[in-house]
Amino acid sequence: MARYGMAIDTRKCVGCMDCVVACKTENGVPEGLNRDWIAYESAGKFPTIHMEIRSERCNHCDNPPCVACCPTGASHVDDLGHIVLVTHNACIGCKACLASCPYDARFVHPDGYADKCTFCAHRVGEGLDPACVMVCPTRCFTFGDLDDPQSAITRVLESRRGHALLTDAGTGPRIFYLD
Amino acid sequence: MTPELFITRHNELVDPFVQVWSWQIPVYLFLGGLVAGMMIITGFSLVKGRYGERSCICSALPGVGLVMLSLGMLALFLDLEHKWYVWRLYTTFQPSSPMSWGAWILVLVYPVLIASWLVRPPALLEDLSQTVERASAWLQARPQAVRAMGAASLGLGVALGIYTGILLSSLGARPLWSSGILGPLFLASGLSAAAAFTHMVARNEHERIEMARLDNVALTAELGILALLMLGLFSGSAPQMAAAGLFMGGAYTAPFWVFVVALGIVMPLIIQNLAVAHRIAHTPLAPLMVMTGSLALRFVFVQAGQMSHWAHGVLGVIRH
Ligand code: SF4
Ligand code: SF4
After folding, report:
1. Can you give the pLDDT at residue B17?
2. Which residues in chain A are closer than 8 Å to B316, comparing Cβ atoms?
3. What pTM was estimated for this model as a whole?
4. Quick one: which of A82, A94, A151, B227 has the most CB atoms within 10 Å?
């Protein structure tokens, strides 16, 4: 089974939010809610200052607390490629998964179930890239199987330095930001 | 053009911090803890064979427990966003989810509460129903079974009390909650609230004093566990220190020190120690303070925990 992940080149990302719009359109995400978003992070003091622009979303963690805490099994790791998904009609809307996600990646859909990025599993199942990956004008995303030594993502992660977010939380995030 | 295109955050619920649970969850955790304490006290009375005395508190507590637990479940139900799928809790068992454990523990708790109630039902109920009277006589004629039920009540009470704390500590995202010691803390708090309640309603003088003593032990334990929890947070990672900071100059300093520690634990502990030593009379004041403090503990931990975050306390990082 594949283990999908994403590498995002922070040197290329300009924060245009095309990925945000593409996701909302592809997945019919209701108004006021987002499955992906842009974060700006700055560090240092002027003039030695560093700024990073990142496209963030669910990290489809290797050790997902949102799946562990779900009382009904609605939150689960799928068979397609270890993608973390929510079965809508098994979710009771208890919000334990929202409280357990260090990345604040989840929200309650107006219909009552917990919702978040699916890595566009419906597209990936057909051999396509997620909508955000496909639409990015600077081509800053690399999406693929982290367990395949020949995949583009494995090669880019071997050749570039990068970081994941909040690794102290122990979730094993699978979205990597290339420095 | 809708404002959507300008959104740089994911959703309104998480900016600036997750605020997914409001009053319902603290109330549920408080009532769950209170019932857990009541089951421990009832279980102890049954194991000791005290149910023979008409004035035994074991005749009232399981009935009160049933009402309290049902109110707690109602609060939990009100919090659910996908209410009509609640039955999904009972089509599966998820061993890694404390909430799933809790759902199944509650299935065992109800029959044990009902059975414990039937051992020594209130006189009024016995007069009203012959079935109740017969069931009670049947149980009383079987001391071994009653003792076993007492033991079950004790065990389930401990499990329920610990569950109310572990529920939070299993949610890895919040550094304030990331300690298994929340289980014993909420158990001690639930037991002290139940002892305080029993102290107020017990008709038997001996039981009243016993409950005040039990309450003092539980409150002292709670104080000790809180100190350990703070020590653990302060000696932990930067986000854990930042989480402890919420009680040390941060947003929850006043509610924590005033309502939980001073009015909810220290003051009633002093008052009840004086009462136990026969220096002052027993009044409902201290028990009421204990119960309010126990409720405040749930509110403070649920709210402050949601505010704590792994990104906090990490130097040099500013999240816009
Ligand atoms: S990022 Fe959050 S929602 Fe996504 S898998 Fe990790 S813990 Fe779960
Ligand atoms: S809100 Fe739904 S998906 Fe999340 S933990 Fe509760 S039941 Fe599971």
Report:
1. 55
2. 43-44
3. 0.91
4. A94
Q: Measure B292 CA to ligand 1 centroid, in angstroms.
A: 36
Tell me if A99 sits within 8 A of B20, measured CB to CB: yes
How far apart CA B57 and CA B217 sit, in angstroms, is 19
CA distance B107 to A90: 20
Query: Contact, A5 vs A142, CB < 8 A?
Result: no
CA distance A136 to B320: 22
Q: How far apart are CA A40 and CA A14, in angstroms?
A: 10
SS3 track for B224-236: HHHHHHHHHHHCC
Q: Is the pLDDT of residue A31 over 50?
A: yes
According to DSSP, residue B260 is labeled I
Q: Return the amino acid letter for B175.
A: P
At A73, the pLDDT band (50, 70, 90 cuts) reads: very high
Distances (CA, A) of B276 to B162, B224, B285: 28, 21, 14
Q: How far is CA B144 from the centre of its chain?
A: 30
Whether chain A has a CB inside 8 Å of the CB on B83: the answer is: yes
B299-311 core/surface letters (b: 16 or more CB in 10 A; e: else) = bbbbbbbbbbbbb
Tokens 């009402």 -> residue:
B67
For the Cβ of A88 lying below 6 angstroms from any atom of ligand 2, the answer is no
* Angle at the Cα of B162 from the Cα atoms of B160 and A87, rounded to 5 degrees: 75
Asked if omega into A47 is within 30° of 0 (cis), the reply is: yes
Q: How many CA atoms are closer than 13 Å to the CA of B275, on its beta-carbon side? A: 23
Question: What are the residue ranges of helices labelled H in chain B?
Answer: 24-47, 61-79, 98-119, 123-128, 130-140, 143-169, 182-201, 205-234, 238-245, 253-254, 267-276, 285-307
- In three-state secondary structure terms, B7 is coil
Distance CA B179, CA B152 (A): 27
C-beta atoms surrounding B217 within 10 Å: 13
A32 interaction partners in chain B (CB closer than 8 Å): 4, 11-12
Q: Which of B12, B94, B310 sits opposite A71 (nearest CB)?
A: B94
| pLDDT recorded at residue B132 | 87
Query: Which residues does chain B have with pLDDT short of 70?
Result: 1-18, 313-320
Residue matched to tokens 């008052």: B271
Q: What is the pLDDT of residue B264?
A: 97
| H or E segment to which residue A44 belongs | strand A37-45
